């Protein structure tokens, strides 16, 4: 009959063994994520893409009627002759002003887009740090940094990353700073 | 129960061994060497130089054939690496420099195996000059 002390000794060793086994088997030292499909797999980025598209269409539609009218006006004035020169120049200057305003709006849109992407990237970076810490991994590599990744590798944490990203950041808003007199 | 302390140690070591086997098998290659400076590229250049000396084709056609061959080598590189990784039952192949940065510099280096496979595939192949 073994004493309670002996029993505790070997059970402690077994505990060490089990910890050793479970720890090493469940914790790949390097994690890999594939962000190649981020614009379809991240709901925030997919939404952002749609938002940018919509803003660009709005921008185009906002200026299009006036631009068309001004171009028609210039064409008609040209047909009428030389005494319309000042009115042609005024219409041309107005077109230039609209184009310049549209360009500025596009730049503001691009900046807002970059800022929104940066927010998503910051969240991705935080999730990568969390996943690495939880798995006890040294690092999280992007699949682009690898030369080969076995299909089904336990180190592939792409699913986990998108699950967390979409739960935590289902949408990202673009904050566009609008000029008060843009295009008007 | 019939467990002794030494039995428990043996079990512990056995389980730890098994656990290690579950860990990632990482291979490394010197990607810059394979993409830019391995002897196969110099060999392709020598082939091209010999063809230029023979003056059977224009220098431009020979140069183009050499560039295309180097491009073929680069295109084949990922597949060769994958084949070697699969044969070695590896999980991951990364560049040697990256491996060093993330503390995996001691992983098995298969650069020479990849280089050899590329040489076997391409070194005997004559350049194909477009007519």
Protein described:
- The complex is a heterodimer of chains A (184) and B (131).
- Chain A is 69% helix and 7% strand.
- Chain A has five helices and three strands; from the N terminus they run αβαααββα.
- A two-stranded parallel ribbon of chain A has the order 1-2.
- The longest helix of chain A is centred in the middle third of the chain and has 51 residues, at 85-135.
- In chain B, helix 3 (39-54) runs antiparallel to helix 4 (59-87) and helix 4 crosses helix 6.
- Mean pLDDT of chain B is 86; it is low at 1-22.
- The longest helix of chain B has 29 residues, at 59-87.
- Chain B is mainly alpha-helical and 131 residues long.
- In chain B, strands 2-1-3 form a three-stranded parallel β-sheet.
- Chain B contains six helices and three strands; from the N terminus they run H-E-H-H-H-E-H-E-H.
- Chain B starts with a helix and ends in a 9-residue tail after the last helix.
- Chain A binds chain B through residues 2, 6-7, 9-11, 13-14, 16-18, 20-25, 28-30, 32, 138-139, 141, 145-150, 153-155, and chain B through 1, 3-5, 7-9, 11-16, 18-20, 22-24, 26-27, 29, 31, 78, 81-82, 85-86, 90-95, 98, 102-104.
- Strand 3 of chain A pairs antiparallel with strand 2 of chain B.
Walk me through the topology.
The complex is a heterodimer of chains A (184) and B (131).
Chain A: H1 4-26, E1 30-33, H2 38-41, H3 43-80, H4 85-135, E2 139-142, E3 146-149, H5 158-168
Parallel strand pairs in A: 1-2
Chain B: H1 5-22, E1 26-29, H2 31-37, H3 39-54, H4 59-87, E2 92-95, H5 96-101, E3 108-109, H6 111-122
Parallel strand pairs in B: 1-2, 1-3
Helix pairs in contact in B: 3-4, 4-6
